Amino acid sequence: MKKNIYLAVMLTLFSISACDDKILDKVNPNGVTFDTYFTNDSELLAGVNSVYAGTQGLGLAAREWFFTHDLRGDEMATGGGQLETPRNQLLIGVNDPGNSVSSSVWTGWFRVIHRANVVLESTTKNVAFSDEIKKRATGEAKFLRAMAYYELGTLWGGVPIYTEFVKSVENSLPRSSQTDVYAQVLKDLKDAETLLPATYPAKELGRATKAAVQTLMARTYLQQGNYTLAKAELEKVVSSGLYSLAANYLDVSNEEGEFNSESIFEIVFSPSGGSFNWSGPDGDGNSLQEETVRTQEYSAIGWRNLIPSNKILNEYERPSKGDAKLDPRYDMSFWKAGDKFNNGANTMTDDIVQGNSSVVDGKTMKVSWRKYSVLYKSMEGFATSGINMRVMRYADVLLMLAECENEVGTAAKAIQLLNQVRSRPTVAMPAYPTANYPVSSKAEIFKAIQHERFVELSAEQVRNFDIIRWRKNGKLTAEPLSYFVKGKHELLPIPQTEIDNNPKIENKDQNPGY
Q: Is 11-246+491-509 a CATH 1.10.10.10 domain?
């Protein structure tokens, strides 16, 4: 069953975000309050489920989260004039503190933090929770809070660090440094690692595991340039023996492949045909997001707001570039003229696809994203879907570990890990070294790692984080973003709504360049 996490959400308690403090003085005398709730295991689990529900919201995984990451990388191009202004601003680097897309992500993650803090504070109440449920709830809440702060700290740098349930506007906090944000992330993750199980029964899939904690720790260490500690965490995931590459590359982003052998953490949506509501970002009540609009935004038949950039399309190995064969991941990542869709009943043609064209291998054609597109089994003119967002998967673990091995001087292990990813049965690319990717030096291996991450993880909200850390740690030989201005575009601007509503943050606290 798809709906593995029952999202019991308590509106009266959890709908307050970091920017909603001004409503804290309004109390419904008939409503459920913190003092009257959390009296048993079921209520505590409902609280944890509400934290997961926050990640589903329109401001996060249902829409604005994937947009914000994709618009700040070099995998995307505009699909045409239909791309909304706030999105185009991010794509070309002219966004300001009033940008509604990135501001929704900021608010969404602070909503997750707020809910996690409510759960964590509830576990300190004098209530006879069972040890098992209390332990797991604490671990899950700390993992989700850490994930939120990892995203906020990486995208915005220093942000306010809330580790307690905010009950008054007077409890607003100023910005902390990025270093302190990452320290809080690692503290939460180290706690969660001791509390969370390695696996769950089928009905509980979608909850955070030890491997999810370890993968996020590794990502945090990589942002800090600490390859040794990142390597140690990634080796824990590999040595667990619980994960392996899915045989079929299509399964990394289709509905039928959810919770496959390489899935480490997914944000869960209901089966396609469920519900999607545009009325708000919360993921609550009547606005509960049980589907995502990703397929409508990117698919060949849809709005096609973003299309693959010429850079990513021409990155894939192919005979015209002197490579042994066309990388099968190219056909499995993009829709093109001649492709069969809708369970093989229809054929893609350029005339049924709106918007801009691409140039691939010198040829002009319309290419669209296939990843997370429901067109493989549908031909709806407007399509939302229940495809889970794969936030962490094993291929990424192997490629991060390859990067660590290369950095610490174990080149042979790095090459072996790269080739392990390339040997997936439906990919079966020739092993490194290849004609275009020799691997006889640390620099050559790193070039192969960059290439492999680009094509393996395309459109999976990883590229932006890679660019940020490689830039920060001096690993880039050329800047990937044409608009990039040093001293400005490393970070997003603090949203104006936060400056307006948080008395501890002023315009002078804004990130450089804004």
A: no
